[in-house]
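Human: Cast an eye over this sequence-structure pair and say how the chain folds.
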Amino acid sequence: MKNFERIEWIDVAKGIGILFIIFAHCYIPNTLPKKIFYSFHIPLFFFISGYLHKVRANNQFFIRKVRFLLKPYFFFSIISNLILFLHVNFWNSFSVPLFIPYNKIVGIFYGIGNDLWMFNITLWFLPCLFLVSVGFNSLLLHMEEKKIYFLLLGSSIVGYIGSKYLYFSLPWGIETGFSGIVFYGIGFFAKKRNIKVLEVDKLFIVLILFFLNFVTAYFNSEVDMNLNKLGNYFLFYISAFCGAFGVLGISKIFVKKLSFLSFFGKNSLIILGTHTVFLMLLPYYYAYFTGISIFYTENILVNGTYIFCITLILELPIIFFLNKFNYWWR
């Protein structure tokens, strides 16, 4: 398989996942859809990344991941902070003193999804995935497969303990990486061993997976891998894997009917790097140009759906523009 050959059902799954991420960010706090989506959307992307992992020499792999993960991370981080600077100093008000977000500049290198350190907080995933992928590649080169299985189990326990007792964030989401590498590793070995869970081709099995995801996510506390909030150990992993496998199953069964979603999957990195900026600024500029609030109803989900649709529309020209000039960031 060539390096850039696309797998359509994977692109469809990524498209579903990135749309769930956007909607979960559309100002719908304390709602069931957000709780469900948060239970598996990040594990889904860790799993897919592991599924697509190709073992290479450490130096070659490192260089590739710098190009495909860190270069976009720094590009989107710098552009986002520039937009924040212009918004606060010029577009928002001319009466405020010149504001330079020094903490956000430092936060680019700190690499954690915290409002104090990062304006475009969803970018936290890229440096975390970088550490996970580089670390896992090194394990594959220097450790027996059976030992890696036990290491993944131990990593899941370390990640869970960190979610309970670690009260600060480590650079580049290291603490989240202990949990993320579990999904990444299982994604890799699922493909390598041709595990049949990826061959789900029966709709009723997919529905059972989504039902199990719903139940376990419902009874678990709120999950947020960015903040390393996992809730109950067993409920977290069951809901994450059931939700992820459910999306993968739907993508394989309905790959032709859902092929339009592959557009969002192919451009999921651009969407990840830009949608939060739209969501942060949209309420202000929508009210500025229309004279009314974007939160025009008392129904949170209706507002969220409206914001979601506007965000998707705004994403389209950005996607086409950045694909045309992709040498800037890829």
Summary: Residues 64 and 70 are 10 Å apart (CA to CA). Residues 58-91 form the longest helix (34 residues). The chain has a mean pLDDT of 92.
